[in-house]
Design goal:
Helix content: 40-55%
Structural class: alpha+beta
Number of strands: 10
Distance between the termini: 95 Å
Radius of gyration: 38 Å
Strand content: 15-25%
Number of helices: 10
Shape: rod-shaped
Length: about 300
């Protein structure tokens, strides 16, 4: 039997708050039945994601008239002891916080969400009436505390999974310095994703999906561009090959993209690097040709 709701103690909650957590308005008269029903409702709210119980404390023969005695009975420790007794949960004191009003006419009980659904290992009875059975799990549904179903347990574990996921993401963001950005697994079709090519061997491997944009220059295009930038027709295809081999440009993914069978493609950064080297050293190409010819002669003399 659920605890009766006092019409004079109704509270209005915003829809958003009630969707996020359980809200309930209850009455309490200090009887053994009230204690059992309050324990049941606290467990139900904890299993349903946490929330707040607004309890109207009414005068009755079960409740002492002395305010000091009343204040000493209705405490977080008192409720935590009852929760531990009925549920066997050793962490019951971390689930609740009781705030009494100044005139002790009402109390606000803040209930934290239970990490794992809390069940009862001891049944709650009063005057031969069973409030909750041993082995049962209670949840809030339709403004009442009712025995849970498999669907309630699934929802509870989904909340646990969401909470764990948020915790993991926070730790990942902290470990990555706040640079973690969630992205869709499927990039939008036809929209290239901007990337920055680096030479760090520890960086994640990325297969270039837009070679035409990142490496627009074939070897003939690179020769033509260098001749235009340097203002003299002194660069030829062999110069490009000699520079590539002697300066190991194949090891520079920001300069060259080489797909076996399809030839090499060069980036604008490669053209800029070669042009700057030629401006700084007028013999840059000549030195590369001489070094490459010497390398080829040595290669031919090696026994096969």
């Amino acid at each position: 039997m659920p605890i009766a709701v006092s019409p004079t103690q109704q509270r209005t909650e915003t829809p958003r708050a009630c969707e996020a957590q359980s809200c309930a308005n209850l009455t309490f008269d200090g009887s053994e039945r009230s204690w059992c029903e309050l324990v049941r409702d606290i467990v139900a709210v904890a299993n349903s994601g946490g929330g707040k119980l607004l309890v109207a404390i009414v005068h009755s023969r079960h409740w002492p008239n002395d305010n000091a005695v009343r204040c000493g009975c209705f405490t977080s420790d008192k409720l935590a002891n009852l929760l531990r007794e009925f549920s066997g949960n050793g962490n019951a004191d971390s689930l609740i916080k009781v705030i009494l009003s100044g005139d002790l006419s009402e109390a606000s009980i803040k209930v934290r969400p239970a990490l794992i659904p809390v069940g009862f290992e001891k049944r709650g009875v009063c005057s031969q009436c069973e409030i909750f059975a041993a082995g049962s799990f209670y949840f809030r549904r339709g403004g009442m505390s009712v025995p849970g179903t498999s669907d309630d347990l699934q929802k509870s574990f989904r909340r646990l999974l969401r909470s764990a996921t948020r915790s993991w993401m926070r730790e990942l963001r902290r470990a990555l310095g706040g640079n973690l950005v969630a992205e869709s697994n499927q990039p939008r079709q036809g929209v290239p994703r901007p990337v920055r090519i680096v030479t760090d061997p520890e960086a994640p491997v990325l297969q270039s999906q837009d070679v035409e944009r990142l490496y627009p220059l074939r070897q003939t295009d690179l020769v033509r561009r260098l001749n235009q930038e340097l203002g003299r027709p002194g660069v030829n295809s062999y110069d490009i090959q000699a520079v590539r081999r002697q300066h190991r440009l194949d090891d520079r993914p920001d300069f060259i993209f080489h797909l076996p069978g399809a030839g090499r493609r060069y980036s604008p950064a490669a053209a800029e690097w070669i042009a700057n080297a030629c401006r700084q050293d007028g013999e840059f190409l000549g030195k590369a040709r001489l070094a490459d010819q010497a390398t080829l002669r040595l290669r031919r003399k090696r026994p096969r």
